Amino acid sequence: MTNLMKHVSRPVTLAAMTAAGLLMGMTAAPSAMAATGTPAPECVEYYQSWRYTDVHNGCSDTVSVTVEYTDGQWAPCRTIEPGGRATFSGYGTNGNYVTGLRTCDPVSGA
């Protein structure tokens, strides 16, 4: 019976370790809503291509924005001066399109 327990416990232990690793990865990653603020002002516009997403700040104030993609990923927060531009990743060959721009905190990256 002891030998049987060794064979049963290995798969159970492996499954438990795998599940724990997956859960830790999920808790370590910030949620999409925690990473963003409000929608970016309308005076902040973007143009996307397969390689780049260009963001232009047409506002009279400095803004910090992030880009949300269809796969749920967020770009790093970038601060753009009035009239300035920033370049983010494009949608790539797999069609990971931009779904919107949101304000963010450049100090925390959220």
Automatic annotation (TrEMBL):
Pfam families xref list: A_amylase_inhib
InterPro entries named among the record's database cross-references: A-amylase_inhib (IPR000833), A-amylase_inhib_sf (IPR036379)
Domain of life: Bacteria
Signal recorded as keyword: yes
This protein's UniProt keywords: Alpha-amylase inhibitor, Disulfide bond, Signal
Signal peptide: 1-34
SUPFAM superfamilies: alpha-Amylase inhibitor tendamistat
Its biological purpose: Inhibits mammalian alpha-amylases specifically but has no action on plant and microbial alpha-amylases.
Protein name: Alpha-amylase inhibitor
